[in-house]
């Protein structure tokens, strides 16, 4: 007789049915960064999740950062990393190093995906004119080659998806002067998700989610309406680092992304758990009037 | 913290990765019959399995029988079912009833699939000229409208698959005289799988698989090469009912089907277990020189 | 010298030119029922007509009934057919028989079409989710599995037409509860024609057409504007059986079908005569302000 | 009641069924010339036939001549037409006139087709590089711009057919020196039919067909195998004008055209009669071993 | 070492880059007539220019006249050409000759293009129903088969461009009565450019361009806004022949053509010079508020 | 009047006609390296040439190296570059730096192309599984992550070309172990050209071409047959650095590339001069029996 272990496995697969169906051929943008990028085991877990999403018929796109690795290489050539208001001061040489390091990280992810049997193509925001930027100031101060996304031309992403590749994007863009600019990876992921009206935008972070009270771990919010998210910011209930992230979530929903998730990248397979089980992970930002999808009666 | 149960679920999904990848866009013909068709719970299990295969990117086709239900309705109109050498003697009226009953079963399966959110289309071998038959004799004796598949025109199946429907086929065909003939469902499934060079042909049966010694339950064969299958038949090691089934398996492999499985339809989710786990179920019939796929080094 | 008979034949073909041109690639829904379904010769005539329409470039769809045959089989299993206000009371078993019988009729038509060299595919309203229904009451009374069409999803029909098949539809649908419901064939044909904005909807009936005075055979109406059709109903000038049929005609025109015809299915090749000659058959229901097409000056 | 006249009409249409089916989407090249081009009524008849063929799904191509009209215009400008061995001596000015006249005839045919509601495009062998020629000598003598077809590039014809136009071709070609050459219309039609492996090539002529004995009107041959056609030529049983025509027929069959017809263009609708009725008109040239198609058992 | 001559050549090609890019896949209608049609060397220059435009990715269409050649042939058959208000009185025979001559000119251009290695197809406004006309009166007087363009059906042009042919159009059209009408070539070119919203419409003429003062050669206008063009006409600053041409330019811009050029066809390669260099040739008619394109900052 | 300078420009464009035509839609692989990569002006010249090739309808692909820049960065992090038999000893860290530097160079080229108005996409041999490698030994010695191309999967290149992007490839590949390997850029370009049966493969080098006698500058070879190239190698007539390059040329021709060029990248616009003028630059390697293309009589 077949033992229970196998039957249980079958049950898990069967439970995945409605989710596989719901996201069939939908674009899912995954901002990949933080611990999940440093820990080798977590890295494999995340990439395996994305590969699975691809194989079961979704259209995932990875946007990755690389901050810590950039700092390491800046140091390696004997420079000191400088920050103003949390933004890296990016002179010519720093920009050159940043582009190289992000390129290297990009190809590592491509390699990892390919080793799992899915064809990936790694590009930067320069390729196919994907990301055009404006120079970003920090408190009115010029901090070098740091850019705000000005326009997104997602043609190259649609083309790669049509040809069945998994696109992996590093957050570099071109200015009108064709100079190279560094872009915050959260911003890049958000802009891309908006331009494609993605079904989902998921941020892999190093926090559990959004708290109603940052000092109270039990106040983690499962579902947050856009209006409430705005209130949290206005009322000063969220800490500094969380504000731009939450703002990205709000922007994405208002630009047509169906759902945004702040996930804890330190949990193995947090992406799969979020998508395939009825156990919500982290915080979901929703349009007003919608309940979380796995509570919906469709 | 996320509890272990959810992490285990994620692991099962991740384990499915290589199988999802292996059978991506491959045609899998499932002969569905026996207990799995009578027991309502098993029926739902089988159909859920097939729906999952569809959703994760495979191209399943169901070929079903309906023998017991036919007998029930033959009785209902006051006729007595007659068999010669295990083949139903099929006069005009019996054929009429058989076609009606198989049509009803066909639409029940369509309904079940649709209720799980996948679009199905139920056809018989008449539709689109799918199955052309010759009259089949039983020991030289005319037993009426019983047919052997003569040609398969799989265009309608390719068309339905292209349009993303799940085809469900009942084993009725047309003679050159455009008369209606009943076809053994195993034979129909085998002929269809051969004409499409299917990746897999799976027979859901009421037995555990093929035994080296029919009297010894411990002699179940996991993997059987075509050559050995032929020997089993020649040496008289398999019982009567098994011979035509085994012959179908041999034919299918020799006509280009990659792998044929005799599965125990009484095990819930036997199809998923066979395809998605490294626990082989039933007997796999293989081309000479190949090990079972999950032992292969690819 | 070529004799006159042949020259006359050529003339008939040449006369067909403008009609062939007018309906090129247009969808024509034919409700097939009544005597034309019982008389074997008339049946062949109707099917030959539809096959010709297909071959000269039209896109015909057959929707058929099967009332008399259903009653025959209900009797065969020892049940008594029951009607309320002309609607069959349809309990579980009756529904089961009705679906079986309609399925059998469906495949007979498929066979007949195929024998004339055109590929047909027979489906029910369950296939591809074609017909969704609400339960229909009869004077407030529950009469079982009798349905009103709620929504039509014509994708399967467009797909089959694109792949060059002739679709043949039997009027069975699914409720929201995925139960099987019987649908009046006139209603099903009308709903399908509306959903596809068909060029023509033709009802093959056992009457000559609509009469201005039901008691006066000479008062047959050739052309009837929607407004006048409504008056006929309101003024009580049409008998009971005709009211729902006329209402279907009115609905179809108002939903975008270009022309609806009530034809006498007892006249051999009535469909061809209607479409290919300047002899109007039966009654045409028209949009206000249009003359009958073969009087139009285009 | 519907009177017999209409029922007879329906019967004629129904009889056309198998032929419509047989030639569906097949290329049929019609060489149009002789009396059928001079008599206005016959002209309309021929063009109506071709338009009907187009509308019922065939892919007709007209190749036309214009000999008499050329002679008329040559005279009009005060030149004398000169012939050597039946071939027009074609100096610069004659060639110029010939091209103009053929162009005019071409557009007249285009106009006639368009007035019947089908889109036509008139081209010469220059357009799209359709016909390349070698200079043709007459008994070793240079007779000017008279060409033999050297190569056919049927791309423009396939493109026009794909775009649903009816192509009308006048027999003018280019030499390797890009000079303009006149081509015999029979030769041009034959070369085009061969290059497209047309289903049919039909020559509209001013004779009833091929005779076994030119002096005996009762010896008209209905079906002629290629081998027998060769014998007729070798044994001197056919007169001078018929030899090149018969040779074209033989070439066409040997190059892959399925059937060639020599039709009497003086019979109204001879094309329709040949294709749509079981009354063969004129002489059919066949591949050895085939009976005429309407005697075949398919 | 490579000498300067070759390096200069490379520079010219490089300078062409932005123009090649700007007009990539854009439709450019060239009205070809006047001296450039009579002088053999200028003719080759114009056709080479158009062929180059085709090869570097533009979609040129030639519309040609043939007035002088028509007069020559009218004379040749002993008729006298008659004009009323500058419009040719076009009786039956004149129309016949005009169509023949334009057809001949058309095929000469086809031949020239083909000799340069590009596939051309020559059509008249009859082909594919391209040009439908109304009879045009001259001061209220019937001058025969002279037509005003009533409608353009550009399908045949789009089809030929899609299939990579260069279309060459002669200005003949059909009336509602299917009679043949002569059309002014400027009018035909303008109507075609409008119907396709062409990027450019260029008139090759025998003048240098539009003058602010027709008596002062130094008053040639390089760029002319639509409003100013209207003023020139209203104020009587342009001579008789120029008025309809200027009106065509105004119409074209107002119907959506991006830019219209009046070029001096007597300058070799005037088309290339206009398109590929920053030396404007002739007069450009522009939409209000736009500077000439090579002064734009894009 | 238009001055001579402009007419000369037009002439140059017209001269380019036959070459534009010859290479329309053909794949041209350009190995870009050496001085042309260091000198900023030469770099712009090369990229402008490639952009022009793209715009006039060719399908260029750039494969670039980056040796000098790699050495500079290896030095920057305080490592010493080590070479064995001219091959860089490539340990883990060197490979990491090499990949980063090549990635940076890649995106600089992408930026330059985009600034000229053409969409480019920069990839490495990892993307889409383009280049799979075997470890390469140097005289039997392991020199680290240096690879020989084992297989090319050009799908990603065909996909990018189809979507109208200009692909720019850096010579990095994956081993079977999914480790990163450096590939000689000449080898990568050659392998890619072979896998796509490119029309042309052009090596931009720092030499004028191949000499019959390396010591005699006047012995530069314009055209070299494969057989003669082999003789040069066997007879020791070519120096060390030239041998592998010449071997690549020989391999390419034998694998189906139509023509290979060794060009002097120090000459501005050497690519354009080679392709668009009848002044051959450098050395062309040809298949036996062919003269250089611009001497051919086609």
Tell me what the structure shows.
Six copies of one chain form a homohexamer. The first copy, chain A, is of the alpha/beta class and 298 residues long. The first copy, chain A, has a single domain, classed as Carbamate kinase. Helix content of chain A is 41%, strand content 24%. Chain A contains ten helices and 14 strands. The first copy, chain A, has an eight-stranded mixed beta sheet, sandwiched between helices. In chain A, a hairpin with a 2-residue loop joins strand 6 and strand 7. In chain A, helix 4 crosses helix 5. Chains D and E meet through helix 5, strand 5 and helix 6 of D and helix 5, strand 5 and helix 6 of E.
User: Could you state the CATH homologous superfamily of chain A?
Assistant: Acetylglutamate kinase-like
Radius of gyration of chain A: 19 Å
**In the CATH hierarchy, what is the class of chain A?**
Alpha Beta
Largest interface: C-D, 38 and 38 residues
The description of the largest β-sheet of chain A is: 8 strands, mixed
Read across the widest sheet of chain A, the strand sequence of neighbours is 5-8-2-1-11-13-14-12
DSSP strand content of chain A: 15-25%
* Helix/sheet category of chain A: alpha/beta
Indicate the percent of residues in helices of chain A.
Answer: 40-55%
Which fold does the CATH topology of chain A refer to?
Carbamate kinase
EC number (chains A, B, C, D, E, F): 2.7.2.8
Organism (chains A, B, C, D, E, F): Blautia pseudococcoides
Site (Transition state stabilizer) (chains A, B, C, D, E, F): 31, 245
Catalytic activity (chains A, B, C, D, E, F): N-acetyl-L-glutamate + ATP = N-acetyl-L-glutamyl 5-phosphate + ADP
């Amino acid at each position: 007789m077949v033992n229970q272990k196998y039957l249980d496995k079958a049950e898990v697969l069967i439970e995945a049915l409605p989710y596989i169906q719901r996201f069939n051929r939908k674009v899912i943008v995954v901002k990949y960064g933080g611990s999940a990028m440093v820990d080798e085991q977590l890295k494999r877990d995340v990439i395996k999740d994305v590969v699975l999403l691809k194989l079961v018929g979704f259209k995932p796109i990875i946007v990755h950062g690389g901050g810590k690795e950039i700092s390491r290489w800046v140091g390696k050539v004997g420079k000191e990393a400088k920050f103003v208001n949390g933004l890296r001061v990016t002179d010519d040489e720093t920009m050159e190093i940043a582009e190289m390091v992000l390129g290297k990280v990009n190809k590592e992810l491509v390699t990892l995906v390919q080793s799992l049997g899915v064809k990936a193509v790694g590009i930067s925001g320069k390729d196919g004119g994907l990301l055009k930027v404006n120079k970003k100031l920090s408190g009115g101060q010029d901090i070098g080659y740091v850019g705000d996304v000005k326009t997104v031309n997602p043609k190259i992403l649609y083309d790669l998806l049509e040809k069945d590749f998994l696109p992996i994007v590093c957050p570099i863009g071109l200015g009108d002067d064709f100079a190279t600019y560094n872009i915050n990876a959260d911003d890049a992921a958000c802009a891309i998700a908006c331009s494609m009206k993605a079904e989902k935008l998921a941020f892999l972070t190093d926090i559990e989610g959004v708290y109603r009270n940052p000092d109270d771990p039990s106040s983690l919010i499962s579902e947050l309406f856009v209006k409430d998210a705005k209130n949290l910011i206005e009322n000063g209930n969220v800490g500094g680092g969380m504000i731009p992230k939450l703002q990205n979530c709000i922007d994405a929903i208002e630009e047509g992304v169906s759902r945004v998730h702040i996930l804890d990248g330190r949990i193995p397979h947090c992406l799969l758990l979020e998508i395939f089980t009825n156990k919500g992970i982290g915080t979901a930002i929703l349009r007003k009037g919608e309940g979380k999808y796995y509570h919906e009666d469709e």
